[in-house]
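Changelog-linked ticket: magnesium ion example.
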Amino acid sequence: MSPGASAGPTPSFHVPVPAWVSVATWLCLISLVALLIGMGYRRWRRNHRPKISEAEASMRRWVAWVASRWPWEAQNLGLVLVDETTRHRRPWWSNHVLPPVVCYPRATFYPAANGLRAYVQTLPGVGLDQVAKMAGHLANAWGCIRVEVRQDRPGLLCLRGLLKDPLAAPWPVRPDGRPLADWLLHVGVDDEGDMVLLPLANLSGVTVAGVPGTGKTSLQRWWLCQLAPHPAVQIAVLDGKVSDPADGDYGDLAGRCFAAAGDDPIQANQTLQRLWETMRSRSAWLRANRGTSQFWDAGPSDDCPLVVVIVDESHTYATAATKAQREVCESNIWYLTKLAKEGRSRGFLTVFVTQKQTADAIPTAIRDVCQVGLAFGVRTMDGAVAALGDDIRQYPEIAPTELIGRQWTGVAVMRRPDCAGFHRVRTPYVSEPDAALIAGQYAAFTRDPGSMAPLLSVEGPVR
Ligand SMILES: Nc1ncnc2c1ncn2[C@@H]1O[C@H](COP(=O)(O)OP(=O)(O)OP(=O)(O)O)[C@@H](O)[C@H]1O
Ligand SMILES: [Mg+2]
């Protein structure tokens, strides 16, 4: 055979492999690689996860336990939708009709400060009312002292389970004398430790109710300590508890108040008339000097300050003890209603404080135009309704009727203009000497706003 000649076909050792075997091999290989990557990633996560304390770990275990019981809990408490529309359906494998389907609301649970937070999706017939009614049973089942329910957004409820009450301890503070920032008034701290700030802009009025000794006046003191350092704020106080305002709870703050009145309805009437005249003359002043009738377009200034009127024990001015006083009381109610209804756009904010929030103490016409309501402890649900409106009946677990007792002094239920529902707030406590110090320090800022804006001729109430 000559060189280069072919030796014939080379014997082939290729064994034909069925296609499925190679696919399966590839799949196995890919799965193995994915498994190794997954294990590596988990190991990496384990090593790089932030270290959590034993307390936090046990809190997470508890939340997982509560979450695992939710389907069972929801069904036992009747928080379910029985879907009857399935009744007439038949499965493809049989002729028997299907039974109704029982659906429970889907929920996601998270650990939160002092307990847990759960977001629960509503179902037809299972909404805020139904879940709020079961809040007490849920608290028992989860081992919480309280479960609060609120509407987070349409179709979603937010449940707060509290293991301990973050508001049960007093909170003494010492005012630092810094003026308000951005016209946000500090009210207190809520269940989750967040600061509750009240935007003063465009606020018409605030009502504060509560049985004696629950912290209503102390809260006014705290507010005055925040307002006093601002030169664009002027304060008037009507204290229905004492004949001479200098002797009462606001006596130490008198230096920072441009007007004050005691429990005499006639004296109060004169003060209210003066305030009302100042308020009425504001519109013309605002138009002439700012080109608008809306005070808050430019906000408070030294020449056109925010006027805060505190009416403590406001029922004194509205309820007549004698026949002779009736006319004056009617006139007082007229002025107070005007301040509440017309004050917002003219830079007046009226705070009505009373032990007795019933229609005879504070007319509902006044309560309903005040955007913010605070109720410290009250004895009856009717008192809570009078203070906060009828909606509070839907939130019995946080009603102010639960705030009776020494440990709840300074804790209030609040209706806020910017959030739905009600919120419990622990208000700080400022001692009288500390407040007096602030008032004295800024007494030079006190000016009568009536002397700044020219008065126009205005007509008072028909007597
Ligand atoms: N935020 C608070 N934290 C702790 N204790 C408070 C707080 N506020 C008030 N107190 C305590 O409660 C007492 C009564 O407070 P305050 O005078 O504010 O009650 P009130 O509701 O105005 O009562 P009244 O209706 O009789 O005027 C205070 O002297 C103080 O000891
Ligand atoms: Mg008081």
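Closing comment: Example verified and attached. DSSP finds twelve helices and 16 strands in the chain. Residues 216-217, 249, 312 surround magnesium ion (ligand 2) (CB under 6 Å).
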